């Protein structure tokens, strides 16, 4: 079978995507519950909330350069299975949390699992995809991410209201267990030409520039994740899960309907569109401080975030052979971790001295900084590499 006739949507690829739904649903459960848990049950302030929500990104960023080579030597299945296990224990650990410090420690453990899981499953998805459909495979795979993140917040919020916060942590652990089983049966083993031992460098340098663009483009989104729940509570709306779902449904719909658009536009125009929409959406949330403003701003932000990752991810993948693919993904995805971790912390500081609205305004401004960087410092490299 030639690459041009090789199918993409095979049984194993579909099981891989289902594994992603369970795992990211477990992460999504936490987003509407953890901020209130830290603020109300543990007595933490805005900085503590930002650190607890985004702290997993900091530990994941540290772990990415290490887990990338592991995926290339021991195989994608190794990373995904152990990633699910660690993330599950990180979520379940909240059952025994009595202080902000302990909550952050379990969040850091979740981050270690996230580092291994994402590198492994993203590399596996690319391993299963025909060469000419890698961008399309990335769009479909990312649909599973947002499907889980769409359903998770709604389920988590409703479960907390109907049962308890502890029930949310238990369900998160159970979903990770399902993901572990599916990963064991669907993930490929060691890649062709797998290396033994450690590489001379843990960073895949060609992937650093698309990683920079991704990280800058996600900073404002990280503030959205950390503080939208508390913001909508302030304006009298008790269903933040609907806001998360709006974001996710928009992303899912656009990525299915326009799966090949990033390939056609190229990374420069795609990233420009993303930064402009992201800034606009966050500014709408900041200045239109009513329920309709939250949903309109969220929809525009979702438009901005829809295509940034697929375009830049494929750019990173194209820079690496198959036996260095996990390393390239590890390098590229550090940007996501740092954006979530540092973005939540920085914008939490803005909330501390000002308000949630000013934090969203600052997040939108960071998207404009990303636009300037993409059109000056990084643009020549993108045009040559694409």
What CATH calls the topology is Growth Hormone, Chain: A
Query: Taking Cα atoms only, what radius of gyration do you get, to the nearest Å?
Result: 19 Å
Mean pLDDT: 81
Order of helices and strands: HHHHHHHHHHHHHHHH
Q: How would you name the CATH homologous superfamily?
A: MFS general substrate transporter like domains
Q: CATH class, please?
A: Mainly Alpha
Largest sheet: none
Q: What's the layout of helices and strands?
A:
Layout lengths: L10 H20 L3 H8 L4 H28 L2 H17 L7 H29 L5 H29 L2 H22 L21 H27 L5 H18 L3 H5 L1 H21 L3 H16 L1 H10 L7 H29 L2 H21 L2 H7 L1
Helix pairs in contact: 1-5, 1-6, 1-7, 2-3, 3-4, 3-5, 3-8, 3-14, 4-5, 4-7, 5-14, 6-7, 6-9, 6-13, 8-9, 8-11, 8-12, 8-13, 8-14, 8-15, 9-12, 11-12, 11-13, 11-15, 14-15
Structure description:
With 386 residues, the chain is mostly helical. The chain has a single domain, classed as Growth Hormone, Chain: A (Up-down Bundle), CATH 1.20.1250.20. The chain has 16 helices and no strands. α1 crosses α6 and α5 runs antiparallel to α14. The longest helix is centred in the N-terminal third of the chain and has 29 residues. The radius of gyration is 19 Å and the shape is globular.
């Amino acid at each position: 079978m030639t690459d041009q006739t090789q199918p993409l949507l095979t049984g194993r690829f579909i099981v891989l995507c289902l594994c992603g739904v369970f795992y990211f649903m477990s992460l999504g459960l936490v987003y509407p519950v953890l901020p209130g848990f830290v603020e109300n049950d543990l007595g933490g302030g805005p900085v503590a909330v930002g650190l607890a929500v985004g702290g997993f990104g900091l530990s994941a960023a540290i772990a990415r350069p290490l887990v990338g080579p592991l995926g290339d030597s021991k195989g994608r299945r190794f990373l995904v299975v152990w990633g699910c296990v660690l993330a599950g224990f990180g979520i379940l650990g909240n059952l025994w949390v009595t202080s902000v410090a302990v909550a952050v420690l379990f969040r850091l453990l979740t981050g270690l699992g996230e580092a291994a899981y994402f590198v492994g499953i993203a590399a596996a998805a690319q391993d299963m995809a025909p060469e000419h459909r890698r961008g399309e495979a990335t769009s479909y795979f990312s649909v599973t991410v947002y499907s889980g993140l769409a359903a998770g917040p709604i389920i988590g919020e409703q479960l907390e209201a109907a049962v308890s916060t502890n029930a949310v942590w238990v369900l998160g652990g159970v979903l990770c267990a399902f993901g572990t089983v599916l990963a064991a049966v669907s993930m490929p083993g060691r890649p062709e030409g797998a290396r033994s031992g450690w590489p001379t460098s843990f960073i895949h340098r060609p992937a650093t520039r698309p990683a920079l663009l991704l990280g800058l483009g996600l900073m404002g989104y990280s503030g959205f994740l950390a503080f939208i729940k508390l913001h909508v509570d302030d304006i009298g709306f008790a269903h933040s899960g609907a806001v998360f779902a709006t974001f996710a449904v928009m992303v899912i719909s656009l990525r299915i309907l326009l799966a090949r658009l990033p390939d056609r536009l190229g990374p420069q125009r795609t990233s420009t569109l993303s930064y402009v929409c992201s800034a606009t959406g966050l500014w709408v949330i900041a200045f239109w401080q009513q329920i309709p403003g939250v949903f309109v701003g969220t929809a525009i932000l979702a438009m901005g975030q829809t295509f940034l990752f697929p375009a830049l991810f494929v750019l990173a993948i194209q820079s690496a052979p198959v036996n260095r693919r996990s390393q390239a993904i590890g390098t590229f995805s550090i940007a996501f971790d740092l954006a979530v971790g540092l973005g939540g912390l920085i914008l939490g500081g803005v909330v501390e001295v000002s308000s949630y609205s000013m934090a969203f305004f600052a997040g939108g401004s960071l998207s404009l900084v990303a636009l300037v960087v993409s059109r000056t410092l990084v643009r020549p490299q993108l045009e040559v590499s694409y």
